[in-house]
Amino acid sequence: MQLDSRLAKEVVRDIVDEEFTAPPSSPDVDLVPVMLHAVAARKRQLIRDLLLTLLVCTAVWGLYSSRYVAVLLTLALCWVVVVGETLVATYGVVAHDLRPGRFQPDAMSPPGNSKLGRRLKQVAAAGQGNVSVYSGYTPFVGCGITLNSWSFALDTHQAAAGRIAESFSALEIHDFVQEQLRDLRTGKVTMSDRVFVDGRDIRGDRRFLPDQLDVPRPAVDRSLVRSLTLEPEDQARPYLTIQSSGWRGQLVLSTFLRFVVTPQELFMEVSHCLLAPVRDEFQEVDRLLPQPTLRQGIRIGGRALRRTPGHVLRAPFAIAAHLLSPVTAALQRSRQRREILSSLRFNYGAARSPRETASDSRYQRYFQQLDNDLYTKVIERRLLQSLNRFLESKGIDTAELSQHRTTIENHGVYVADGGTVKAESLAVGTGARASSVLMRVANAAKQGVNEAAGRN
Predict the structure, then answer these.
(1) Is 24:142 a contact under the CB 8 Å cutoff?
(2) What angle do CA 221, 244, 417 make, to 5 degrees?
(3) What CATH code would you report for 145-275+365-410?
(4) How big is the CA angle at 244 (ends 193 and 142), to the nearest 5 degrees?
(5) Which residue windows are transmembrane per the record (predicted)?
(6) Tens digit of pLDDT for each residue in 249-267?
């Protein structure tokens, strides 16, 4: 938030200033101090833009009056302003307040703005809740890219030799598997039930939206979650959520598990989502001394020199947008209210989380890739073992499950459309070998799976 003005602006616009949409949840991240730093950074950046705008006006006057020395001096002062703001952000805030050993999440003063305070309470509640209201195609908002997905259906009428197949409910198998997975030690593990609902479908559903001009509920009763597990609906999907966090939060694997029991089949669905490490440019806090050295000062000056033209060009528009923000905000609220009250389709879903935006497109350490494999494979192995035990206890033949298990283990990784995670190497499919320099993007990985399937 402090080092990237575009990111801070995006967070303030899409999360802080929203009145009706659900705030995103973010695994292993407390978004409240993130929001406060975004707001504080925007105030400082607006001061920078105001100074740049005044200097731009001076430069235009210098050109008009043929005072070219004044123009050159003004451009140099623009660079000085950008350097000054960068130094304040880097050493006045990041190196002073956010470096290891000094960071205090609760150190920032509570906002005097009642609207901001109310929104921050909603953000905090979303982080502790059990409902995700999503706005796009993928329901697992805040959890990164969908790295691996698979599902299958089993015939539950096929009895094992000498046994009678017993019927069971989705709650029975859900509770059994959850209990079997409680002692997982794949990083820092949390496990909970969570409901995912599309923000376009909750109007009129008081379970998730108490009032049409209110923010969606961040949490629902456990009885409702269990009822949805037992009797699934099209638009509200409950998942057993397993989150494995490692590398001090730099790597977060979220596994979503769902069972559906029909009169003749058991359907099982598993999705793995990955939050990759934070981009290296946002880890500068770990490389900063409390006071800048000459080398770091030169580096900041060079960075400011590269960024000055863009800041200068955007500054007048940023100031104009800020001056007009009360009007534009009122118009936006009016438009949203009109859409809601006129029964037009309105999307209450959460935007992308800042943690997702700041994620890298590749693993940064070789062992991070291996640890992600560890988390995924251990969870899947324990999951399939638990499922096998449950079916055996019900007298159901597990031969079909063994075939599915072999297929899952032999066919490697499937990366969903839109995925962008890269790694040092990737092996996909039966007998495949990891030989590429970087992990292929999602479509290439998907193509590898198809080619492996064709060879088989």
Answers:
(1) yes
(2) 90
(3) 3.30.530
(4) 65
(5) 46-64, 70-94
(6) 899 999 999 999 999 999 9
